[in-house]
Amino acid sequence: MSLPAGLPFSSIVFDLDGTLVDTAPDLAAALNHVLDHAGRRPVDLQEVRQLVGRGARVAIERGLTLTGAPEERPEILDDYFARFLAYYGDNICAGSRPFPNAVETVETFRAQGARTGICTNKPQVLTDGLMRALNLADRFEAIVGADSVPARKPDPGHLFETIRRMGGEPASAVLIGDSETDVKTARAAGIPVIAVSFGYTVTPAHALGADAVIDDFAELADALARLARSAA
Ligand SMILES: O=C(O)COP(=O)(O)O
Ligand SMILES: [Mg+2]
Q1: Where exactly are the transmembrane stretches of this chain (predicted)?
Q2: Where are the domains of the chain?
């Protein structure tokens, strides 16, 4: 596939939580709803930013470990997960907002002929609800949640399937993400990856091993151009 004029990558895939959208306020509220039910202390925004990245279930498990002791009984975790999903689904976009320049950047790439997609470890129904609430759903060729594929990130199949549904090709794709999960996924897929420094991760963005790090979406176009030149 030939690349659109002026654009080094024709398929640009974004992670959602902590990359395109700052969902921490609503994730914190939902997590604290569950922690309160479990008799635990609430977590703050900074803590939530370190719990997210491997899906809601793992975030709940990490939150329980952080606020006392791990919960290992599957039936209790199932119940907590159901409570989280119900609360979060009802309050999906009370405080979540796209990061600065995120939407503008997506629009610019699309205007230049790129395909854009979302590859997220959020469940599909929540992802779709959030994208609709933010009025962003029609800006992506494919939006692929964790339970829409046989194996989620860091399994590279999740990224490959997103690119396939976008109508793109792995050879001209790039992933933009915020966590170790995203970098591992891209590496396993053999696809370049750019990390954002404002997302949700325990490991600092510069230590994730991404091909480049951006501090603002306004830097993304230049970072992609540099990446393409260094790969050429
Ligand atoms: O829901 C999560 O834990 C992470 O979601 P993300 O893959 O969009 O960062
Ligand atoms: Mg993320």
Answers
A1: none
A2: 11-23+97-231, 24-90
Name the one residue in this structure whose structure tokens are 């952080």: 66
Q: Which ligand is nearest to the CA of 185?
A: 1
Tell me the Ramachandran region of residue 135: left when phi exceeds 0, alpha when psi lies from -120 to 50, beta otherwise: left
Pairing relation of β-strands 115-119 and 97-98?
Answer: unpaired
- The topology under which CATH files domain 11-23+97-231 is Rossmann fold (3.40.50)
ipTM attached to this prediction = 0.95
* Fold that domain 24-90 belongs to in CATH: DNA polymerase; domain 1 (1.10.150)
52 lines ligand 1 (CB under 6 A): yes
Consult the annotation and say whether 15 binds a ligand: yes
Q: Which of 117, 51, 37 is nearest to 80 (CA)?
A: 37
55 lines ligand 1 (CB under 6 A): yes
Which active-site residues does the annotation give? Answer: 15
Q: Find out whether the beta carbon of 17 lies less than 6 Å from any atom of ligand 1.
A: yes
